[in-house]
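Appendix B, example 12.
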Amino acid sequence: MTPMIDVVFLLIIFFLVSSHLARQESRLPVDLPVADTHDPLSVDPVSLTITINQDQQLLAGGQPVTLDGLATLFAEIRDRDGETASLRIRTDGVVPYQVVEPVLHASAVAGVVDIKLAVKESRGS
């Protein structure tokens, strides 16, 4: 009975830590672009969240990463999650599309095609 209780406590700790890290990633300071129309925020988990800050720095899991590093990450999540592999891109509103496009291209090459772009609703809507 004691080993089973130990395993349960370890699982609880694991889920608490992993959920904290997932929430922390979405709190990176980024002023999201504004969109007049969008789908409501999905609560479905994604395989990976990429953040592009106003300095045009790529962050995966809050850590800086290069485009080559992204290609490796995309291949890993595709191999791990298969057809259900998904990606969320959070980018600052001042970041030009030329910075976002290579991320989209790398994900398409790796076979990760379920991509969600994070935006905020315009005030006029």
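DSSP finds three helices and seven strands in the chain. Helices lie at 2-25, 67-81, 97-110.
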